[in-house]
Design brief:
It is built from eight helices and six strands. By secondary structure, it is of the alpha+beta class. Helix 5 crosses helix 6 and helix 6 packs antiparallel against helix 7.
Length: 215
Amino acid sequence: MLAGASGPMLPPLTRLSALPGCRGAALVADGQVLGARWSRAESPGALEHVGATLARLGEMAARAGYPRADVVARFAAGVLVCHPVGDGAWLVLLCDDDAPLAVVALEATAEAPALATFATPPPTAPPPTPPPTGRHEAERVLADRLPVLRDLLVHHVGPMGRLLLDRHLDAWSAQGPATASRLSDLATRLAAEIDDAADRAAFHRHPVWHSSWRP
């Protein structure tokens, strides 16, 4: 009976299940059967429980500092040989009582590298790098605009304009990336320091706030 195995995963499991005294082979990880090949009818669903138990035991052993190694368990119905494959996966072999376990273990070791590729999840793409934030980044992005903004504020509010620009630039850069899409927020912060409504409107309309502005 074939359960779950397909493509390149099938030949290693087929070879293992055909060993003398071996009833079948399965690859399990995280309590799930990734693939199985049985030379005699067995219940593949039981291997999910085996896989979950092995995963828990493996985690306990790792926390205790023990390396992962073969596990052999004897039952009235046969022998279960579990061989570690990759990171967190196991090759599970169900054998007869009189099976040559040394041969089974050697064959399991030989097939493990081929099966490890199926037990290892594909690498995930790293999350996108957020735009840099901070005062230095704001000064870099707004380098061409800052002299103009400083002169505008000084024109409308006097010498205090320099300090006000620094204060608002710190707050603005601390709350998000220094991007063109956030320029309107900086404009609103600075315009609030201008008392005269007409001057505020003129400050808002200045070309320096346009995303396409060039000095």
